Amino acid sequence: MSDTAPASAAAPAGEARSGLRAVVLSGGLNFEREVSLSSGTQVVEELTRAGLDAEIRDADPDLLPGLAASPADAVFIALHGATGEDGALRAVLEMAGVPYVGSPAAACRLAWDKPAAKSVVRAAGATTPDWVALPHSTFRELGAGAVLDLMVARLRLPLIVKPASGGSALGVQKVSSVEELPAAMVSCFAYGDTVMVERYIEGTELAISVVDLGEGPQALPAVEIVPASGVFDYTARYTPGLTEYHVPARVSDDVAARAAALAVQVHQALGLADLSRTDAIVSPDGAVHFLEVNVSPGLTETSMFPMALEAAGFDLGEVFAQLLGRRAASAH
């Protein structure tokens, strides 16, 4: 497993493959559309600065005819939420023979399903908080009260309630009392049919990005997340001033190394490619607990993946250009 990427690993200026035509996919029709549009705009700006011909496109009925009429050397996926992360769009691109940056469809389907991803990561030897994932129908058929009582007895308060799939922490809530749980469940079901209830771990929250520029996946310096509310939910992520970020994270060298190893382990265990971001929490005893992984992390100038790249000494545009260049080359 790789250690955190050193600053000397920065991509040399000018290494971007000039002449490449890139299409950046951004937008989509889901709750994370606006975040995706911001990521896509930033990627196009960085690729243009690195010397590539880049244009932004939405995932709509014009996409496939447009790619057929004017093929791209490679596609950069800056879509968040189901459109960019559940593997469906990537499967279509694979059928169409369109090379793209990012993890393959099958790996994305696995990572998108948080309970399934946790099962694979735990089987690989990593630590992750205990959880229960159940569809809405279970509560309807067996009685919500009885099932919720069993959840609390099994996992113990406090709990984290989140959709079993999804991004941007939409629907994520901390539950500290039995009385709060029913409302949190109802709210969470607005984002999907299955809810995952997870034991809450008090500690330092980290985001550890991974990038693979051809020499294997390497972890970037961890970003420490300090939300004012104590929970890194959607509001904390996207409301200026509600969350502090520290990169590198203010943890010991030993914890930083184990967090880096965890992120690479997750990337490899799930079969991911090119880039990913693992979210983890460090408990007071120093254990690093896997929470979830994002196959299409935010790429705006204030997102955690670019923060980590900058801290490692990478140039954002050159990294994006190298990823595209590798995918374009592998298609020929």
From TrEMBL:
<keyword id="KW-0436">Ligase</keyword>
<dbReference type="GO" id="GO:0046872">
    <property type="term" value="F:metal ion binding"/>
</dbReference>
<keyword id="KW-0479">Metal-binding</keyword>
<keyword id="KW-0547">Nucleotide-binding</keyword>
<keyword id="KW-0961">Cell wall biogenesis/degradation</keyword>
<keyword id="KW-0460">Magnesium</keyword>
<dbReference type="GO" id="GO:0008716">
    <property type="term" value="F:D-alanine-D-alanine ligase activity"/>
</dbReference>
<keyword id="KW-0067">ATP-binding</keyword>
<dbReference type="InterPro" id="IPR013815">
    <property type="entry name" value="ATP_grasp_subdomain_1"/>
</dbReference>
<feature type="binding site">
    <location>
        <position position="292"/>
    </location>
    <ligand>
        <name>Mg(2+) 2</name>
    </ligand>
</feature>
<dbReference type="Pfam" id="PF01820">
    <property type="entry name" value="Dala_Dala_lig_N"/>
</dbReference>
<feature type="binding site">
    <location>
        <position position="292"/>
    </location>
    <ligand>
        <name>Mg(2+) 1</name>
    </ligand>
</feature>
<dbReference type="InterPro" id="IPR011761">
    <property type="entry name" value="ATP-grasp"/>
</dbReference>
<dbReference type="GO" id="GO:0005737">
    <property type="term" value="C:cytoplasm"/>
</dbReference>
<dbReference type="InterPro" id="IPR016185">
    <property type="entry name" value="PreATP-grasp_dom_sf"/>
</dbReference>
<comment type="pathway">
    <text>Cell wall biogenesis; peptidoglycan biosynthesis.</text>
</comment>
<dbReference type="GO" id="GO:0009252">
    <property type="term" value="P:peptidoglycan biosynthetic process"/>
</dbReference>
<dbReference type="GO" id="GO:0071555">
    <property type="term" value="P:cell wall organization"/>
</dbReference>
<feature type="binding site">
    <location>
        <position position="279"/>
    </location>
    <ligand>
        <name>Mg(2+) 1</name>
    </ligand>
</feature>
<protein>
    <recommendedName>
        <fullName>D-alanine--D-alanine ligase</fullName>
        <ecNumber>6.3.2.4</ecNumber>
    </recommendedName>
</protein>
<dbReference type="GO" id="GO:0008360">
    <property type="term" value="P:regulation of cell shape"/>
</dbReference>
<keyword id="KW-0573">Peptidoglycan synthesis</keyword>
<feature type="domain" description="ATP-grasp">
    <location>
        <begin position="118"/>
        <end position="325"/>
    </location>
</feature>
<keyword id="KW-0464">Manganese</keyword>
<dbReference type="Pfam" id="PF07478">
    <property type="entry name" value="Dala_Dala_lig_C"/>
</dbReference>
<comment type="similarity">
    <text>Belongs to the D-alanine--D-alanine ligase family.</text>
</comment>
<dbReference type="GO" id="GO:0005524">
    <property type="term" value="F:ATP binding"/>
</dbReference>
<feature type="binding site">
    <location>
        <position position="294"/>
    </location>
    <ligand>
        <name>Mg(2+) 2</name>
    </ligand>
</feature>
<dbReference type="InterPro" id="IPR011095">
    <property type="entry name" value="Dala_Dala_lig_C"/>
</dbReference>
<keyword id="KW-0963">Cytoplasm</keyword>
<dbReference type="InterPro" id="IPR011127">
    <property type="entry name" value="Dala_Dala_lig_N"/>
</dbReference>
<comment type="function">
    <text>Cell wall formation.</text>
</comment>
<keyword id="KW-0133">Cell shape</keyword>
<dbReference type="InterPro" id="IPR005905">
    <property type="entry name" value="D_ala_D_ala"/>
</dbReference>
